[in-house]
Amino acid sequence: MFGVLAASCSSSGVSDGDDGDLIRFAAVPAEQDTDPTATYKDIIALLERSTGKRVQFVRSTDYNSVIEGLVSGKVDLAQLGPLSYVLARNNGAKITSIAALVRQGGEPIYHSYGIVAAHSPIVNIGGFKEAKVCFTDPASTSGYLFPSQALLSVGIDPKSGVTPVMAGGQDNAVLSVATGKCEAGFSEGAMVDHILIDKGKLKAGQVKVVWKSAPIPTSPVAIRDALPNKLRSTLIKTFTQDANKDRLVQLGICKNTDSCRVATDSSMWGFRPITDAAFDTIREVCVATHHEKCSKA
Length: 297
Known about the structure:
Elements: E1 5-8, E2 22-27, H1 36-39, H2 41-51, E3 54-59, H3 63-72, E4 77-79, H4 82-90, E5 95-102, E6 109-110, E7 112-117, E8 132-135, H5 141-153, E9 163-166, H6 170-178, E10 184-188, H7 189-198, E11 207-212, E12 216-217, E13 220-224, H8 229-242, H9 245-250, E14 270-273, H10 280-288
Parallel strand pairs: 1-3, 2-3, 2-4, 8-9, 8-10
Antiparallel strand pairs: 4-13, 5-13, 5-14, 6-12, 7-10, 7-11
């Protein structure tokens, strides 16, 4: 196995051109204090085995840096959120979605939660009016886009009807609510249901869910269209056939399925094929909420 390299999206050491021996991989940051190379080490090992190339993990401080990396050609392969995928394409990234995360036997969907502290008098999203509200990032689907739609549906402007705070990560949004830094907040459901609880950062019942979104398509993996056809085919096969916990154990990359990790959310089993059309619902919500980045091309 090759050693895992790491770089920054803004690093001058990352070339705009292709390196035949290198795949530059990035992921939008779900958690602010987690080492992403540890989160994706099993996927990186699989990619290096299947392609015979080195994988350089391009560290990203926010969603926009991953989008910029794809637009500029400094990133070859990325794990994105649904909205950041749409925004990347809208802003000129020549990329194609090839696979999306799934739980074993499940559909490629997840939910956004609106949360408040356990002792809060707020009982529904209408109570967020004029509150200090923690969002995740303007390019986050569950941490901003769908919450914006929900707030607008009850007559609350997500910019002027609340005091918005961009927490930077799904974990920060939840923990800011739990510790009283924000009166309310939004995050992907898994961050509340088990991720932070499993890590001992949040106690069960410390926050309560007062709103749940409609199903959202899960996070896609996208690859650059300019990659050589043979490499593109290999990456598609790798993600749709081998990038799951059962197969990773068979290949000897993981000792068992409990120790395998394919994403920040440990309950995710692997990936299944997906097409660009799956994200049309994101585009519809994007337009309906007048997201300022949605119309850029």
